[in-house]
Amino acid sequence: RQEAKTKGKNWFDLPATKLTDSVRHDLDLIRMRSALDTKRFYKKNETEAYPKYFQIGTVVDSPYEGKTGRLINKERKRTMVDELLADVEFKQSAKKRYKNILMSNPKLAAKIKRENRKMKKLKKKRK
């Protein structure tokens, strides 16, 4: 049996999207959104598999908002992962949570410290 290339007429012939690495990273980020924003509640995902039929869109700025509400080209990123990595507030909250986890678990902190030392040694050897 041949696989369907679209979802069907009831879904307006939604095409099957090719899964690239960047798309997989974005889908993983959406799955882990409850860990990223701990103050909000999100329903748990029922499936572990990636969806076959989906589309990714681009947010278009409204011409009625004026220039103050828009992002400049320098601030726009290609993927959601890149946007999060560029977000200063997200970085600060992630560092704070990471620090709290290490403070609450000294064994884990020691293990990570050892692994970081090993990584530094490996980097020096490669140079």
From TrEMBL:
Swiss-Prot/TrEMBL keywords: Nucleus
List the molecular function annotations (GO) for this entry.
Answer: RNA binding
| One Gene Ontology term, aspect cellular component | nucleolus
Q: Which residues cross the membrane?
A: none
Q: Which superkingdom does the taxonomy of this entry point to?
A: Eukaryota
Localization, per the record, is: Nucleus, Nucleolus
Where the protein is mainly located, per its record? Answer: nucleus
Q: Does the keyword Cytoplasm apply?
A: no
Q: Which residues form a coiled coil?
A: none
Q: Which InterPro entries match?
A: Fcf2/DNTTIP2 (IPR039883), Fcf2_C (IPR014810)
Gene Ontology BP, a term: RNA processing
**Short name of one Pfam family for this protein?**
Fcf2
User: Where would I find the Fcf2 pre-rRNA processing C-terminal domain in this sequence?
Assistant: 4-97
What protein name is recorded for this chain? Answer: rRNA-processing protein fcf2-like
Q: Which organism is it from?
A: Sipha flava (yellow sugarcane aphid)
